[in-house]
Structures are given as C-alpha cells and as structure tokens.
Amino acid sequence: MHPAIAIVAYTSPFRLVLHSKEDMWAPTIEDINQRTYDYVKLHRLSGSIDIGLPAPMCLHISFDGSLVLPKIDDFWPIEKAVSFINCILGTIVVGGIYFGPVATTDIDQAALYPTAYYRSFGLSSGFQGQLRYTLQSKIASPLHSIVLYKPRHLLVADIQSSYVKGKSICSQAPALSPEFILHGITCFVSHDWGASLSHLWICVEQIVEHLWRQRVLSEVVQPAIPIQGRREFLSDNRTWSTSTRIELLFQKGVLRAETYAKLNIARKARNNLLHTGTLPGRDAAEAALDSAFQLLACASGTGEFDYFAQMLREYKTINPIERHYSREGVISENDVGLWLGPLPAIPGEKEWGDKPYENIYEGVRGG
Questions:
Q1: b/e map of 30-41 (b: 16 or more CB within 10 Å)?
Q2: What percentage of the chain carries pLDDT values higher than 90?
Q3: Looking at the chain, which terminus has fewer C-beta neighbours within 10 angstroms, N or C?
C-alpha cells in the first residue's frame, strides 16, 4: 500500500480524539512507564471534516488530536498551511470547542496510508510536535509520557458539530477572519491582555464594517434627486471612523447599550496601546472579547447572545498553567497530580543531607 504525503498540524492543548464513546484509552501507570501502551493507536485517524476540498480530499483528525491535510499547492509553503489551519481552528472555537493556534513550528509532514494511519516524519521543532512524535515512537521522557494517563478527550463528532456551527455563524459576517478570533481568545487565556485586545479589535472592526454595509449602506434613505458622491462619502473610513459607525449603529438600534459600553472601554484601551504604548488590563481585553462576540451575534442574526455568553464563561476559566506533577505524591483522589519522584536532591533540601556543595558566594560548604 503506497502512502500519500500529508501535512500534519499538532494542536494544543493535548487531548485525545475518540472515534465514538466506545473508543477506549486506559493505559496504567506501569504501561506508560514501561512503554507498553498502545502506540499504534496514536497513529490512527479518528474521523474527518469536509472543508470544501475536491473529493475525496478532506481534513482528517487523528486520535492524538493532530490535524492531517493533503499536501497540495494551496497548503504549501508552510505559511499557507498555518493560516488555513488557524482559520479552521478559529471556526471550531466559534462553534464552542477551544483550541490554541498552530505556528510554523507545529507543522510536520507525514506518510498517510490507505489503512487510515499516518507516520510523522519528525520535522516539527515545536513542543507539541516533539511530544506527539516521541509518544508515537515510545521514546518520550517520563515527564512528557505521563500526559497519556487519563488525558482529556473529545469525540470527533463534537469537533465536527462545532465546525459546522462555527462556519454557519461566521458565514453571516464574511468580513470576519476566524484566525484573529482564535489568536484573540488564546492570548486572553494566556493573560496576554495587550495581544488579546489587538487581535480582538481587528475582529471588532471587521464585524462593524460588515454591519455598516448591511445595515447602513444597503438601507440608506435615497433622496428625491441624485446626489453625486453620496455613497462614496458614506463609505469613507476617514469620515466614518469605527467609533462613528458604532455610534450610528447604536442609534439605529443595531447594537445594544451593553455592547456599546464594552466597545467604548475596548476602543479607549486600544487607542492608548496604539498611541502611548500603555498596556491594557484584563478589564479592557475582556471588554473586547465580549463585545466582539456580541457584535458577531448581531451580525449572525441568530440571537446567539446567550450561547456566546456561556461559551465565553467557559473559555475565561481555562487554566493556562495546568500542573500535573507533584514531589509529594498524588494531589487528589481524582489524579489531578501525579508523583514523579523521588527527584534528585539539591542543596537546601533535607534530602541533600550534609554533603558538600559549591556556593559561588562562599566557596565550598558542608562536608
């Protein structure tokens, strides 16, 4: 069986993607430490998504959470693949499942076999790529292979549904780039308020532009006699800035007062960031996040305010520094943390005892 050459994107956070509820993954600690876990399954595809490619090409989702694309001209060089995949991930995020963006260092190539298994070439230099490659090859360190013990998981059907829902919502605001939504939310999760505000404000301007064309230019009152240049005047960004357009959209009843208030907070913080370099706090980034999705609800015409509010509550509680390890032992009965010790002792710890050690300030001590 001759393989096809594919592009692999390693996603974050690390989660397994199950084909169905009957799909199982339950290695023991001993299986993981002794490398007797089912490494073959980590190479398996769990499902696919129709992303509009000529049949039979599609986007495959692997059991280890990687995305597998055909290597075609539209996805190469690597920057094209990154942008395309991040748009897909952004669409899924709008549909309700969180993913982080991929970078050029998260892209690999692979042999994709007709058996629905793939073999990575190991070309990725990013952490997620190195993690997947070493887990598949059974050469990961104990620090990294422990992620295979009771990992978080998703059903492939849920990812498929989120993509369909996100695509339906985004199609109502064609000026919106889902890639910026993806980066904005990820920076918010990482507490990078300035970057989050910057990315989300781009989304705000894109959706405001769409609403302006939809609710102002297409509904403008026509005078009894032609007025030359009037439409060009209404389309002039210098005269009708984003803040001015927001005001008029509010007066026309397109925007809610809550949305306008949040937009005002985000706009002022963005201007301060742009003109004086003043970094925003969480409040400004959160205002940009909330208002961007409220604008998207307005543009979609589906009344998704409650859906987006619930989704954002979940995204805002994501812990970017989730710890799984402890020196003292299991943290809780639910295996939130796992003991990796005993770790090698260093001076200052009781396990070091009275052995000599080097101190550059005071010379050799102890002994």
A1: eebeeeebeeeb
A2: 72
A3: N
The torsion defined by the Cα of 82, 290, 204 and 102, in degrees rounded to 10, comes to: -10
Question: Rounded to two decimals, what is the model's pTM?
Answer: 0.88
Closest CA to 47 of 12, 16, 85: 16
Q: Which residue has the tokens 């396990």?
A: 351
Q: Which residues have C-beta within 8 Å of that of residue 205, sequence separation ≥ 6?
A: 242
Distance CA 353, CA 283 (A): 49
Q: State how far the Cα of 290 lies from the Cα of 201, in Å rounded to an integer.
A: 11
3-state secondary structure of 359: strand
Picking from 319, 343, 324, the residue whose alpha carbon sits closest to that of residue 334 is 324
8 A C-beta contact, residue 220 and residue 213: no
H or E segment and range at residue 312: helix 305-316
**What single-letter amino acid sits at 252?**
K
Dihedral over Cα of 29, 32, 35, 41: its sign: positive
Residue pointed to by tokens 């993981």: 32
